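[step 3/7] inverse_fold.run input=structure_tokens len=189
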């Protein structure tokens, strides 16, 4: 796997080595040993999968300690714009984001460390999206930010009138009003 660094330290794009022939393709989608050597030591404990249609926007979500989560995400079918937002108070990149297009054709994966909010928008008619998480889902520790916070300046690559949100995702706080954020100086692992 090739690791592509982004503008925010710790947030990386993973490009797999793809082997193609007349039969199709093969690639190793995950190796714990290689991930620990090239990205960081993380023990993934839960895999999740979602299916969504065009215009669905999920996010911007995170979990608070002691259930903070790193995520390794990828697309099995379709295409998404995936976004990680630094929400660590005191970070030199606080409030900044990295976005990457993940597709069934590029096979890229995106690693979002603890201390970041995560979301994605669906760019195709249908998407199947997979997450690896390094901590278990804990509903009482959920947190979220508004997907349309002007201070974040995220272009979700979908016209606003086509965006489909859950009722819950319609009512999250702006970053400036956030009642809870991570501390950059605290070890989240």
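[step 3/7] decode complete -> sequence:
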């Amino acid at each position: 796997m090739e690791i592509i660094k982004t503008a925010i330290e710790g947030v990386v794009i993973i490009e797999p080595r793809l082997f193609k022939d007349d039969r199709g393709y093969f690639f190793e989608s995950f190796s714990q040993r290689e991930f620990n050597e090239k990205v960081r030591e993380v023990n993934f404990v839960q895999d999740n999968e979602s299916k969504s249609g065009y215009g669905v926007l999920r996010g911007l979500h995170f979990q608070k300690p002691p259930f903070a989560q790193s995520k390794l995400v990828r697309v099995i079918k379709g295409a998404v714009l995936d976004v990680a937002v630094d929400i660590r108070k005191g970070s030199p990149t606080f409030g900044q984001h990295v976005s990457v297009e993940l597709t069934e054709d590029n096979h890229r994966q995106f690693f979002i460390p603890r201390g970041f909010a995560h979301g994605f928008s669906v760019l195709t008619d249908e998407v199947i999206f997979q997450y690896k998480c390094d901590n278990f889902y804990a509903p009482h520790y959920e947190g979220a930010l508004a997907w349309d916070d002007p201070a974040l300046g995220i272009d979700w690559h979908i016209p606003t009138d086509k965006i489909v949100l859950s009722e819950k995702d319609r009512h999250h706080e702006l970053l400036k009003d956030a009642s809870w954020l991570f501390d950059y100086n605290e070890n989240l692992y």
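[step 4/7] annotate
The longest strand covers residues 46-53.
The mean pLDDT is 96.
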